[in-house]
Amino acid sequence: MHMERRKFLSKTGKILGLSSTLSALLLQGCDMFPWSEDTDPLKGDGTDTGLDITNDIKDLKEAMFYKSLNENRVKCQVCFRECVIKPSERGFCRNRENKEGKLYNIVYGRPSAVQIDPVEKEPQHHFMPGSYIFCVGTAGCNYRCKYCHNYQLSQQSIDDLRYEKLLPEDLVEQALEQNVAAISFTYNEPTSLYEYMYDTAKLAQEHEIGVMFHSNGSMSTEPLKKLLKYVDSTTIDLKGFEDNFYQDISQAELSPVLDTLKTIVDAGVWLEIVNLMVTDLNDDPEVVKDMCTWIKEELGEDIPLHFTRFTPSYKMTDTSPTPVERLEKAREIAIDCGLRFVTIGNVPGHQYNSTYCPECHQSLIKRDHFSVHEINLEDGKCENCGLDIPGVWSI
């Protein structure tokens, strides 16, 4: 089901039209979904919009990376899976459909989640701290993570979700009106909506709006390099450092993620890495040490690393939350391996929610969960000792 753009914008007008009160609304976590907070996007609100989903070719966007095969089959080339898709069928991510021998992105301009968030929620700790970002997500994902916290979006097809009709120019228009630091593609895997993200990123750059995305890191190298020309910052999930963990938990592979991380660094685009530490599954100290050593040697000591706490979700509700002591131990290992900026997430109020100067050890950015209380940076330098702190401090 979708809601017409005019109706969506009128419903969100209470937020979009009141720039003088926007900051107060955002601090209360006010969202921009065109349905009430107590409505599940999978179920709808009981109102018949009279608008059914249509996947007519004229309403879709042809995929940018695919190869035509015999018998009208196509091979998608946007991610490591390289799905071979028969006519009238979709790939593993559910977002790319073969119609008459051509591959189409069926979620282009059809976000199911639109919200303004603090950049710290991405998480990004070295990108304009304390600013807000315009977050966009659709249906679908090329992973099957058992613990996904956004499974209502990522593990569904667009056919099963409510969505808005918002084209790239609409996203840019709203980002400009809200004076946000960036547009972020997040919530579900942005690789699966590639063309929507790419077109938005190009347009956003023309208007000097930042662009970022939060990804599982499985995009193929060619589309990634093409996209990175228009991207200011990335957050990549390095879910673990063992192939069997990736296969068992996500039905995925580790090596494409490592390739993605190196490609981003080589392109000179800002990168932050998230490791969601799952109790007894990816928290072995020796594996953590191997991961941190690889990051230091292959990517560099200045890549921020976020160790975040697992909480039960989706198909792993019987797994205990990560003991905080294991997160603290992981941070200690990372520092010992030579990484300079390591934080702990999903533990509100923890000392290492904050970023510290690796030289003088004074607080650079004091945080409590997603809230920034103090920034001790001057032109990208530590105010106390003058050390250059890498990051994106302005657009």
UniProtKB/TrEMBL annotation:
Its cofactor is [4Fe-4S] cluster. It comes from the Bacteria. Pfam families: Radical_SAM. It comes from Natranaerobius thermophilus (strain ATCC BAA-1301 / DSM 18059 / JW/NM-WN-LF). One of its GO terms (molecular function) is metal ion binding. InterPro entries: Aldolase_TIM (IPR013785), AmmeMemoSam_rS (IPR027596), Organic_radical-activating (IPR034457), rSAM (IPR007197), rSAM_sf (IPR058240). Gene3D superfamilies: Aldolase class I. Residues 127-340 form the Radical SAM core domain. This is Radical SAM domain protein. Keywords: 4Fe-4S, Iron, Iron-sulfur, Metal-binding, S-adenosyl-L-methionine. CDD domains: Radical_SAM (cd01335).
